[in-house]
Design a protein that fits this description.
By secondary structure, the chain is mainly alpha-helical. 71% of the residues lie in helices and 2% in strands. The chain has nine helices and two strands. Strands 1-2 form a two-stranded antiparallel ribbon. It is elongated.
């Protein structure tokens, strides 16, 4: 009821005020503010906020936040002051109102100016000049011409850049390709000359005179339709004459080497015999060190083999020297057990023979003594 009465009295008083005074009171909480702000109060408000006229809204808000943190009673800072904070808040409201008023006045001025300008229909702005530019058609045409010039310049620069990059890339690729091609041609020519020389030399010696298939076509070595017969025949001829691929020779060499090392370490252990005296243990340690070094070299050979082998499933793993030494020890123990078992069997057979033919052997001995 009290609010309604206050509003009724305000309306009555406002009706009694002459219209030429242009006073518009408003109520905001318990404060009475006026729509009219004197010039001096606006300048003072800018000074309180430590700003200049014409600043942006972001500057106003940032300044207000910093001053509010500085003077707010609840901030807990040493510069907290309620009166200063109220001044800052009032100045902030005045500055915001001033900025809003200037913005509206600028918009009104622009609208008034636009009313006197001859505008083309909105849809025509986007039917020409690719929608570039603003203003009158002549201005938009100039802006569009400049836009086309800039775009053409950028396209030319981009084209030149791409052309140079492709040229350098193609040049490097051609150089590498030429080097590989030249090496390939040299190797092919060298092989062809070597083969031709060997054939001529063999023909001169008469090695081809006694061939069974002389003058006949080569027989197919494989009936598989997925294999090129020419390639298969050439590979078969090379293999039959000892020309095997490098990785096959390396694989064969690795297998022969590991077998030789295994036999060698077992033989060395058998030669030392048992039991292991300090001298024999020292000799065995020296043999194991040499075996470990040989296994290391063999593993390096396996690395080279894995680099050239064409099939992944054909690759080999490293040999472990410790495992090979344990294996050799077990092999030696098994040999000793077999030897002991064979010796025991031999003794048993001898004893049985003595039991069976003891009197005959005694008679033979007596006869020999008598004859002498």
């Amino acid at each position: 009821m009290l609010t309604n009465n206050i509003g009724h009295h305000l309306m009555v008083h406002q009706a009694m005020i002459p219209r030429n005074l242009k006073l518009f009171p408003c109520i905001c909480g318990n404060r009475m503010l006026s729509g009219y702000k004197p010039k001096s109060s606006v300048k003072d408000s800018y000074k309180i906020l430590e700003l200049e006229e014409g600043c942006s809204l972001d500057d106003i808000r940032n300044s207000y936040r910093s001053l509010a943190k500085k003077y707010h009673p609840d901030s807990g800072s040493a510069t907290a002051d309620s009166e200063a904070f109220m001044k800052v808040e009032a100045a902030y409201r005045v500055v915001l109102s001033d900025v809003e008023t200037k913005k509206k006045s600028n918009e009104n001025n622009e609208e008034e100016e636009d009313q006197f300008k001859s505008k083309a229909p909105q849809h025509r702005h986007y039917l020409s000049f690719e929608g570039v530019g603003f203003g009158t058609p002549s201005q938009r045409e100039k802006q569009y011409m400049q836009f086309r010039v800039d775009r053409a310049t950028e396209q030319v620069l981009e084209y030149r850049k791409q052309r140079l990059e492709n040229q350098y890339a193609v040049t490097d690729l051609m150089k590498a390709k030429d080097v590989r091609q030249s090496k390939k041609v040299k190797i092919t020519q060298a092989v062809e000359r070597l083969v031709e020389d060997l054939i001529q030399e063999s023909m001169a010696k008469g090695d081809f005179d006694n061939l069974r298939g002389k003058g006949k076509p080569l027989q197919k070595f494989s009936d598989c339709p997925h294999i090129d017969p020419m390639t298969h025949n050439l590979n078969r001829i090379l293999i039959d004459n000892g020309y095997q691929p490098e990785w096959i020779l390396m694989q064969k060499e690795i297998r022969e080497t590991i077998e030789r090392l295994r036999r060698g370490i077992v033989a060395s252990r058998s030669k030392l015999g048992g039991p292991m005296t300090p001298y024999r243990q020292k000799e065995w340690n020296h043999i194991c060190e040499q075996f470990i070094e040989d296994i290391r070299k063999l593993n390096k050979r396996i690395d080279n083999f894995n680099l050239v082998v064409p099939i992944l499933s054909r690759q080999m793993v490293h040999f472990s020297a410790d495992k090979e030494i344990v294996r050799a020890q077990k092999t030696y123990e098994a040999l000793m057990e077999n030897r002991e078992a064979s010796n025991s069997d031999t003794k048993e057979n001898e004893e049985e023979n003595v039991k069976r033919f003891g009197w005959k052997s005694s008679l033979v001995k007596w006869l020999n003594l008598t004859l002498k």
